[in-house]
Amino acid sequence: MVRINSIFDAYRQSLKQVFAGRDEDVTEENLQSRIRGALLMALSNKFCALVLSTGNKSELAVGYCTLYGDMVGGLAAISDVPKTMVYRCRVR
Asked: Do 86 and 60 touch, CB atoms closer than 8 A?
């Protein structure tokens, strides 16, 4: 497991002055996604592996995904599967 806590804290510290006076919002959530995406791509490069994007058809259609975050990957295996089907097929 690769933890992102210290990386996320470093990003927040770097942006602290620029974001001063503003509440945390989706911006910080997207930072976490982008950190995970960057780490997955680093692992992919190091171990000659392929990252699979997790975006489904519903999310991609309405833009409910994070560029350079959960959209990262060389193949979007479920990009043509609606979210309702993803939830219906999940392991119980």
From this structure: no
Pull the structure tokens for residue 1.
Answer: 């497991």
What confidence tens digit (pLDDT) does each residue in 8-33 have? 999 999 999 999 999 999 999 999 99
- Cα–Cα distance, 6 to 28 (Å, whole number): 14
The whole-model pTM stands at: 0.82
66, 30 Cβ separation under 8 angstroms: yes
Give 31-59 as a 3 state SS string: HHHHHHHHHHHHHHHHHCCCCECCCCHHH
